[in-house]
Amino acid sequence: MYKNEKSDEKFCMHPHGHSRGSHALVSDCADGIPRRLARAFILLFLAEGPSHGYEIARSFRESMPKGFCADPSVLYRMLKSMEEEGLMTSSLEESTSGPPRKVYSLTDDGYEALDMWASGLDGLSELLADFQKRYGRLRKGGK
Amino acid sequence: MYKNEKSDEKFCMHPHGHSRGSHALVSDCADGIPRRLARAFILLFLAEGPSHGYEIARSFRESMPKGFCADPSVLYRMLKSMEEEGLMTSSLEESTSGPPRKVYSLTDDGYEALDMWASGLDGLSELLADFQKRYGRLRKGGK
DNA sequence: ACTAATAGTGACAATTTGTCAATAGCTTAA
DNA sequence: TTAAGCTATTGACAAATTGTCACTATTAGT
């Protein structure tokens, strides 16, 4: 299963149209915000409280732009590798409404990683602000 | 040669420390902002005026955080693939101070792509603002 | 018994990056 | 005149990341 939302429309960030007919289509891009940023949000979710993969996936679906919501297997894979990196630990917990869940919680290294992401993302914000300023100048001044 | 800046310190975004001793080091991360964003800035540079690879590389070095400055070959490769996607065209121009340069300028598709990046990055900015808000709440309230 | 929601794993291909060697033109100074 | 050093670009290969999809398994409701 897991045939989730196909053909996203928003947050297109790499128009690889190959000149389809006359001009690039907007609707043919599937990703959006770089996938790696999902790690930052996973850390944030877990800092707000322990959780398991399926629930984290739901949080993404409910509060993030569609194009940013990875296929569940991608999410699970991230959780696994982040655990291997020592950013979180997991424990199986029985559920009343389905199979047992793997509940993750952050380690100290995980909190540290979150802090580093936070400052890294500050840098990214500045960069984006710069981009937008210069882009805005273009639209006013030239062309 | 091209042995450019080694061991960057800033804009670390993926601490993969594997618990080196006791806690993750900050200085062992080499990337930073996702490389793909460089494409947006390349388009921006070229929208500000035609340019060639070597100069674009210099612009990056001079106005972007170190970790975001790709190895020149990476930059050249991007330019090549973006040209293949029809976002820009190139023409060889003689230089008085070295070998001929490949000067790129944006096509209409290139300007369109820039516009799409601009709106995509708006979305990213919102996402980051959200992250920062939630991260800030954490630091005040809990833990 | 069947279906749907819940919960997670594994394998493989495709794409994107990182790294580094190689080529080549031009300028300056020993 | 030759070597050093900046300018300018290309190419190949390995490593890492991502996308896709099939698969297993438990529980709840009809």
Describe the structure.
The structure is a homodimer of 143-residue chains. Chain A is α+β, with helices and mostly antiparallel strands and 143 residues long. Chain A has a single domain (37-140), classed as Arc Repressor Mutant, subunit A. Chain A is 48% helix and 13% strand. The first copy, chain A, has helices at 37-47, 53-63, 72-84, 108-140; strands at residues 51-52, 88-95, 98-106. A three-stranded antiparallel β-sheet of chain A has the order 1-3-2. In chain A, strand 2 and strand 3 form a beta hairpin. In chain A, helix 1 (37-47) packs across helix 4 (108-140). The first copy, chain A, is elongated and about 60 Å long. The termini of chain A are far apart. Chains A and B meet through helix 1 and helix 4 of A and helix 1 and helix 4 of B. Chain A binds a DNA duplex (30 and 30 nucleotides) through helix 2, helix 3 and strand 3.
Which key features would you list for this structure?
homodimer, alpha+beta, Arc Repressor Mutant, subunit A, three-stranded antiparallel beta sheet, 4 helices, elongated, DNA-binding
